[in-house]
Amino acid sequence: MKKILFWTALTVILLFLLADADFSSLRRVAMAASQTASRGGARPVTADEAAALETKRQQLVEKEAALKVKEDELNKLSAVLESRINGLNAARKAVDASVQARKSQDSERFKKMLKIYKALRPDEAGKLLDKLDESLVIQMLDQMDQKTVVKLIPYLNQPRVLKWTRENVAVR
After folding, report:
1. Taking the complete model, does pTM exceed 0.70, yes or no?
2. How does DSSP assign 129-152, residue by residue?
3. Range of 15's domain?
4. 144-152: Cβ within 8 A, 24+ apart
5. pLDDT, tens digit, for every residue of 36-50?
6. What percent of the chain has pLDDT over 90?
7. Ramachandran category for residue 20: left, alpha or beta (phi over 0 → left; psi -120 to 50 → alpha)
8. pLDDT at site 25
9. Are the CB atoms for 118 and 146 separated by under 8 Å?
10. What does the pLDDT read at residue 26?
C-alpha cells in the first residue's frame, strides 16, 4: 500500500511538473503523501484528496490528448503547405523558363527584322519605319550600325529622328 501511494503521488507530481500547471495545493497534498509514505507513517488519503488528484490527472490527460490532436492537425497543414510551396516553386521555374525562351525568340525575331530593314534601300526602309510605332523605330535605330542609320535619317520622319537623337544624347 505504501509503495502504491508513493508511486501515485510521485506520478501526479511529475505530471504536474511536465504540464507546467500551477496546482500548488495539489502539489502540497502530493508532497505530503509522498513524504508520509517515505517515512513509513502512511496516513490514509482522504476521499476529497483522491478525488482532487484524479480530477487533475484526468484534466491533464484531456489536455494532452487535445494538444496531440492539434499537433497532428498542424503537422498535416504543414505538409499541405510544403507541397503547395513546392508546386508553386516548380510552376515559377516553368514560367521563368518559358519567359526566357520567349525573350530569346523575340530577340531572334527582332534581329531578323533588323537584317531585313538593313537590306532594303534607304528610301523604302524609311517609308516602312515611318509607319511603325515610334518606340519600336527608336529601338531599331539603337540596334542598327552607324552607316545604316546615316543612310536612313533623310528618309525618316524628322521629329522622330530628333527624339531619337535627344534620347541618345541624354543617356550619355
Report:
1. no
2. HHHS-HHHHHHHHHHS-HHHHHHH
3. 2-59
4. 144/114, 144/117, 144/118, 145/118, 148/118, 151/122, 152/122, 152/125, 152/126
5. 555 555 567 788 888
6. 46
7. left
8. 56
9. no
10. 54
Q: Which of 15, 37, 59 is the last residue of a domain?
A: 59
Residue 18 within any structural domain of the chain: yes
Q: Taking all residues of the chain, what is their mean pLDDT, rounded to a whole number?
A: 82
Distances in whole angstroms, Cα of residue 116 to Cα of each of 102, 120, 148? 21, 7, 12
Q: How many domains does the chain have?
A: 2
| Domain assignment present for 31 | yes
pLDDT band with cut points at 50, 70 and 90 for residue 35? low
Whether 48 is in a domain gets the answer: yes
Q: Is residue 86 part of a domain?
A: no
CA distance 74 to 66: 12
Question: Three-state SS string across 38-79, please?
Answer: HHCCCCCCCHHHHHHHHHHHHHHHHHHHHHHHHHHHHHHHHH
Residue 52 C-alpha cell reads as 482532487
138: nearest Cα among 149, 147, 122? 149
Classify 40 in phi/psi space as left (phi over 0), alpha (psi -120 to 50) or beta: left
Final residue of a structural domain among 12, 30, 59? 59
Residue 72 has pLDDT above 80, yes or no: yes
Backbone phi and psi for residue 23, each to the nearest 5 degrees, phi listed first? -115, 70
CB contact at 8 A, 19 and 63: yes
